Amino acid sequence: MKIPNFSFLPLLVCIVAAVLTGAAARGHDQPLANIAIHHARIALDNSAYIKASPYVLGEKGDDTDWVTVEYFSPNATTNDWIAVFSPANFNSSTCPAVNVEGQDPDICTAPIKYQFANYSSGYLSTGKGSVKFQLINQRSDFSFALLTGGLSKPSLIAVSNTIAFKNPKAPVYPRLAQGKEWNEMTVTWTSGYDISEAYPFVEWGMLWGPSTRTPAGTITFNRGSMCGEPARTVGWRDPGFIHTSFLKDLWPNKQYYYKVGHELLNGTIVYGKAYTFKASPFPGQNSLQRVIIFGDMGKAERDESNEYSNYQPGSLNTTDTLVKDLDNIDIIFHIGDIVYANGYISQWDQFTAQVEPLTAKVPYMMASGNHERDWPNTGSFYAGFDSGGECGVLLESMYYVPTENRANYWYQTDYGMFRFCIADTEHDWREGTEQYKFIEKCLSTVDRKQQPWLIFIAHRVLGYSSGYFYANEGSFAEPMGRESLQQLWQKYRVDIAFYGHVHNYERTCPIYENQCVSTEKSHYSGTMNGTIHAVVGGGGSHIAAFSNSTPAWSIYRDLDYGFVKLTAFNHSSLLFEYKKSSDGNVYDSFTIDRDYRDVLACVVDSCPPKTLAN
């Protein structure tokens, strides 16, 4: 049954059925999935009201702004809550032909965020309240709803006025990434401008030098691109248009300025904010190079919207600590489980806004995780529901990385003295597969006298972890992970392998075939006889416990939020530091000091059999 039109309302909010997905049922609820809007009813109360101000956001050109929401209910309860909807007008005629619980839904989309009405002191006694929301420019207008009945049986009793940013279509949230060549930087951003109404470009140049313009390509996707619920249903929100430009022939380590823009058909130009970045060093270049690596961060809210208060509590600390140290960071790797949107598309915009201070200044390189890719019958190696029906489309569209095929999210990238080989654990990596061939090629083609620091990255733990669920399985890693890849790591002398997925920090000894090959713990010199494995999944999502007993190969474990920083001083000296997100201080570290001959030296299973000399 369709909701009737209420002509006396400034807008009609169709509240939508938030169908619980398989991901939710598996204990990884996206907080918005807790809203059972399929039980919602329209119960407008003429005595209740809700209003939002200011009416126009971003008057000074900002992409974020604060909104004050005032409301009143004649029957205030602890189950009353305020929801943010965007777009503001949800007429039931826009609902897709989806049947929920045996009937056509009245509502088409979940809210973006919410707060409980009694967050405002005195609300329960007076019925009046006021809260603040921080909104970001998401290409459309906003409205606020006052609901009662809690999250499980919501009833809409009042709808606010509409508010919007001054230019909802403005280009926002640039994301830098390494291109396919060492001297190429890519810039990706989001806007409301289709190519039919404006030409996207990047205006850029050397700092203090003349500027040039480079055009950008434009892509988008629709509801039909999603593989399942909630992404196809209540979690769907139009993603706008995603633009990517390729800035080429950069000078190594040179500072550049840039700003994204759109030339409208009438010749008017709409610019985004201005930024600077440093071009990548030449492969093998001997200079100070600093790398950040973490996984599983997710997004969080600065306005105390309650649905994220316990879901990803460390996310803002990680973001803010990195921003404070950004002058000492050259490149960042976020290795899977990026947003935890789980099919609620609006959350990707929220994340891009949160990390913009990082992504607009340094290359921000991604790896694919289960919460981005996994969905049954879509080619995932794992038949889970963790992506909420996104099946990789959001990550592959919104963040460029130099893959040969974005649907296969594995790639290599060089940064000075580093070679990074990034695997995609959500696709088969076993011997004989296309990805296995890529991994071996990436590891085998690096010139170690020029790029001595060889790093392997994957989301799921293919090496070693004493996280409780791996320990309970008895494998201490993904089954078949080590069995498939450890001979490659050993043969090509991988220095460090990084993983996420397990929400904690752990570092192993240099190890091969489950045996430590060194008794040293903090300073490694000379030949490395095995690979050090590090789990860095404490970027922000809820912390995961370790096994009760500590394996002999586990050197350091920490149940906290944090990240790793690698500093290459030259071809012979590398510093590894684990820092906590709460204070940025170092809690675990080690150094590697060696020469090229140490990389060439044979260790177990790393050299071919000897042949007789002539």
Measured by DSSP, the beta-strand proportion falls in 25-35%
**What is the overall silhouette?**
globular
- Look at the helices and sheets and give the structural class: alpha+beta
**Poorly predicted tracts of residues:** 1-28
In helices, the fraction of residues equals 10-25%
Assembly type of the chains comes to single chain
- The number of helical runs is 10
What's the mean pLDDT score?
Answer: 91
Largest sheet: 7 strands, antiparallel
Cα-to-Cα separation, first versus last residue? 89 Å
Q: Count the strands? A: 33
Estimated radius of gyration: 25 Å
Main sheet: which strands, in order across?
A: 11-12-15-14-13-16-17
Describe the fold and architecture.
There is one protein chain. This protein is of the alpha+beta class. 12% of the residues lie in helices and 30% in strands. The protein has ten helices and 33 strands. Strands 11-12-15-14-13-16-17 form a seven-stranded antiparallel β-sheet. Helix 7 (434-444) links the parallel strand 22 (418-422) and strand 23 (453-457). Helix 3 (315-324) packs parallel to helix 4. The longest helix is centred in the middle third of the chain and has 14 residues, at 346-359. The protein is globular and about 90 Å long. Residues 1-28 have low confidence and may be disordered. Residues 530-589 form the Purple acid phosphatase C-terminal domain. Homodimer. It catalyses: a phosphate monoester + H2O = an alcohol + phosphate. It comes from Rhynchospora pubera. Its EC number is 3.1.3.2.
